[in-house]
Please model this.
Amino acid sequence: MLGFAEGMFLVMAVTELILGLLGNVFIGLVNGSSWFKNKRISLFDFIITILALLSIVLLWILFTDSLLLVSSSKVRDSEIVMQIIDIFWTFTNSLNIWLATCLGVLYCLKIASFSHSTFLWLKWRVSRVVVWMMLGALLLTCGSTMSLFNEFKINSALRGINGTGNVTEHFRKKKNEYYLMHVLGTLWNLPPLIVSLASYLLLLLSLGRHTRQMQQNGTSSRDPSTEAHKRAIKIILSLFFLFVFYFLAFLLASASHFLPNNKVTVMICEIIVMFYPAAHSFILILGNKKLKQTFVDMLQCESGHLKPGCRGPFSP
Model:
């Protein structure tokens, strides 16, 4: 029989799963349909689509982990199940974070304007730079996933020692070393966090510089370039703060071994962590003109506010 806290935890997990799936499936269907019709896709749409697919996988992994947490902690903590969840989660999570960072860099290089030679060189080769970033992200993701095997070796050794009943000081040191390695594994997320912050700051500086130029020329501050700057800044800043909360929650969940009320702490952190892939999709929808307009048209068509015979977003 589940307690009140566990019941609330499951309700919130199911809610986040449903909302996250709706948002990410919508992105995948809209961009996939457009790709199929036009036989081509922009780099922006390609990254957003892959992010949506990764978020769907990430949501299911986190939801499965949540179910095991409240229904069968022994199964969740078993070596095989732990390895499967950790490997799939690490790969999907790391690639998701890096692709979101690549999206921020793409916004920055496309919209920001600086006269520095290095920035201009990157701006002129923006597509090539972002593609190479994505390939590098894939390699780093594989590296972070492979690092798990060292943790698993330590964990297997711990289980062997524990099985013999020889609980010694050496065993306790090794156990603490295993959990410490798991906590330090979150540092893989620091580089994309720094790159995202740099992209945001560059866009902010570019907007300030552009606004001053507009004021000097007596031009309206609501020109297309200014609006593009503001829209990109909102997207990157929203994703950045969402990522910060996500990073801190996962860090706390990883360090929960050293904290009292381990299960309660993990449940709270799981809910915060699931919020990232769920809210991520709606930020991308609101920040993308095509997705936002398609979403609004779909709602209007469903509510009957459009003329009779209105066409849905996936109509031929």
Q: What stands out?
A: The CA atoms of residues 99 and 134 lie 7 Å apart. Residues 163-167 have pLDDT under 50 and may be disordered. The two ends are 50 Å apart (CA to CA). The chain is about 85% helix and 0% strand.
